[in-house]
Amino acid sequence: MFDKIKVSVVIPIWNTEHYLEKCLESLIHQTLEEIEIICVNNGSSDSCAKILEDYRKNDDRIKIITIEHGYLSDARNLGIKEATGEYLYCIDSDDWLELTALEKWYNQAKSKNADVVLIQEKRLSEEFQTPVNTNHVSLELYGCDDNGVYTYKDLKKLFMSRYCAWMHFYNRNFFIENDLFYPSKTFYEDVSVHFKTLFTAKRIAVVLEPLHNYYVRIASSYAQSHNNPVKLDVIKFVEALYDILTEKHLTKLYKYEFVNWLFGELKGHFYTSGDNYKSQILTLFDTFISNHNEIKEYIELNQYYSQVYKNLHAQVQKSKKNIFKRLAKGIGKLFKYLTAWICFPYYIYKSYKLIKRKV
Fold first, then answer.
1. What is the predicted pLDDT for the residue at 164?
2. Crossing angle for the helix pair 275-290 and 255-271, nearest 10 degrees?
3. Is the whole model's pTM more than 0.90, yes or no?
4. Which one of 11, 53, 159, 179 counts the least CB within 10 Å of its CB?
């Protein structure tokens, strides 16, 4: 091992045997060699444990922590607590890096004395192995370049558009001292950390070259299921963000960006949920908006947002009416079948009497 670890890479792992080797290969062959690779096996039931052991035999930079299956946030936090590097990076076990990634991010962080470096990803379709259009998440689109050093005041639009654990390359001391650990036992764990990071950092740098490779997978996230109660957790990070804005006295400054982001999350979760969750999600947002008059008034005065809001409520009401219609139709059919079943002995008896009379 090296006297000084420049970068600690943390990988939470759960049942990604088809992707893990590619991820590890991209890390052990990094041009920056002074790294440690902390693998947290989050109760995998596939061959991930064997893959990790095989790689550790050949590379002593790899550390393995094995735990019972739990929340991603807790697995990631455990790995971070074991880290000793000057800088810290978290990667998902089904993603992989270009071989110069850690060296370029590290050099940028050092040259800019950055608390955090925001990185650009390359998104690929797993099904077709082709690039997916990522213009909407391009750092350059939000006015960033490799020469700049930024604070949250420079990145208002960016704040509300991109948030993943792997888009941050941290100074580890900055991360620890500001208690940026991921919320325990929750989904959407990376959202509040993203906002807290950027509001706290005094020096933010970027690397525009896409060096992180991310598979767009149909079933990559438990939370993507249409009928999944996890979707209701969305309100937790909505409240967490608003609490951060309130704490920083930024609710007025970020009102437009927050409402725009709020409706993006509302529509995204609404339209990707089954009918049985649409109403619950809308009710959660109704409660949040009603409890914050400044947000409520802004929405009511904005023609676009107020119309979107009315449309969502109308869809829920229509869905409820359809449910009642289907229920009434079902009850009608059931009553018909029950009536026929109850009357069946009578018809048999009448038929018997008729036959007997003819005989």
1. 83
2. 160
3. no
4. 179
Q: Which residues of the chain have pLDDT under 70?
A: 1, 126-137, 141, 159-162, 217-229, 320-341, 343-359
Measure CA of the first residue to CA of the last residue in the chain; give whole Å: 104
Of 38, 194, 191, give the one whose Cα is nearest residue 116.
194
Q: What DSSP string describes 39-68?
A: EEEES--SSHHHHHHHHHHH-TTEEEEEE-
Cα gap 263→184, rounded to integer Å: 26
The crossing angle, in degrees rounded to 10, of helices 275-290 and 293-301 is 110
Q: How much of the chain is in helix, strand and coil states, percent to nearest 5?
A: 55, 15, 30
What is the β-pairing status of strands 116-125 and 204-216?
parallel
Backbone dihedral region for residue 247 (phi beyond 0: left; psi -120 to 50: alpha; all else: beta): alpha
154 CB-near residues (< 8 Å, 6+ apart): 143, 148, 204
Distance CA 304, CA 298 (A): 11
Q: Tell me the pairing of strands 168-171 and 87-90.
A: antiparallel
Enumerate the domain spans of the chain.
Answer: 7-220, 226-359
- What's the CATH fold of domain 7-220? Spore Coat Polysaccharide Biosynthesis Protein SpsA; Chain A (3.90.550)
CB atoms within 10 A of CB 80: 21
The two three-digit tokens of residue 12, written as one number:
């939470």
Residues with Cβ within 8 Å of residue 277, at least 6 apart in sequence: 226, 227, 228, 229, 231, 232
As a whole number of angstroms, the distance between CA 22 and CA 236 comes to 34
pLDDT digit string, tens, across residues 155-208: 877 766 667 888 999 999 999 999 999 988 777 778 888 888 988 999 999 999
Q: Are 108 and 171 in contact (CB under 8 A)?
A: no
Q: Please answer whether residues 293 and 334 qualify as being in contact, where contact means their C-beta atoms are separated by less than 8 angstroms.
A: no
